[in-house]
Amino acid sequence: MHPIRKQRLILVLFIVFFSSLAAGLMGYALRENINLFYPPSDIVAGQAPVDKQIRAGGCVLPGSVDRAEDSLIVSFLVTDGAAELEVQYNGILPDLFAEGEAVVVNGRLDGDGVFQASQVLAKHDENYTPPEVADTMKNKGEYDEACEGIDYGA
Amino acid sequence: MAWQWFHRLGSPRWFYEKSAPWLPWLGALTAALLLVGAVWGLAFAPPDYKQGNSYRIIYVHVPTAVLALAGYYVMAISGAVGLIWKMKLADMVMKSAAIIGAVLTFLALFTGAVWGKPTWGTWWVWDARITSMVLLLFLYLGVIALQEAYQSRDTANKASAILALVGTVNIPIIYKSVDWWYTLHQPATIKFTSQSTIHPSMFYPLLTMIIGFYCFYALALIMQTRVEILQRERRTQWVRDIVEGGEKGKGKREKGKVEGSTA
After folding, report:
1. Are A19 and B166 inside 8 Å of each other by CB?
2. Which one of A72, A144, B1, B39 has the minimum C-beta count within 10 Å?
């Protein structure tokens, strides 16, 4: 290769390497802030700010969803397996909201440790399965639930 | 000389002439794959057990997103070749890839928003995946803008190639964002190292669409590059001959003719 071209090639590799390094360091410095939401265990441990707009995410604990009879108010527990966070919400839930499914809630943590949600988003998983296949797999116990690995009995 | 083929590849005229016979074949293949993939995916693939029919937008969303990312490497590598070898054709490919990439990125974001509304419950959320994808759109638009920002072609090519190279760092970030951070976007379904988490009856139409979009990308890139060649080489004799074609002697109409006929 011509020496001038070789020099330019080195320059190009130099640009790519150092811009990657810069971006990598930036991502490392900001790593906590890039997360969209706090897991329940961080919130229960007091690592999330109180009465500030934050998001929490985790799995809806099966059996914990409690709907008011005369209004849209709903409360449920969100867990990451290590801790549980109580969420209260007044509004319409997305279609994919269900027990045992992942959610991201947007709102404020009140003084009693209850999360007052202003928005509930369903976080669907990366599995795509026809309904009949999902049924048979569930029966065989081979099926991975959205919140797999979470021990709800804890 | 080992590099001779490479230097001949850099001739816009050579590329323009050699690429013409490929276009109908590539076009037919693209149309066939996209048609089969779309009908298969939208009409014959089973619905999802949780999302029902709304998951079917995956057949557009995933291929556009895949090509938006893969196309960035096409743009960055052409930019690097243009910087190192001062190859005119590479700069033209870079500009074409930027335009197509910007459109694909926009489509990926748009279909993602349309999909997000019924499934997540929101059009938009500033999580790591979506934000880094928006950054990708701005990188593509930045390359296009830099191409137009300088009087000197050479300076414009150099500046946009450097931007394209700096932006390559964003591609692995987009790809891994769903694993590195907590996001609303779900992790990757098609995995290279382990079992994909999509049923084969849904995966094969998706694969057909992805391959179809790769063909479409190649086709669009070649066609757009041919337009760039005609535009940038409009003062050369061979382009004048092509453009004027049958209407010889009409003189100074070539510029308007080129832009009009290729818009």
Report:
1. yes
2. B1
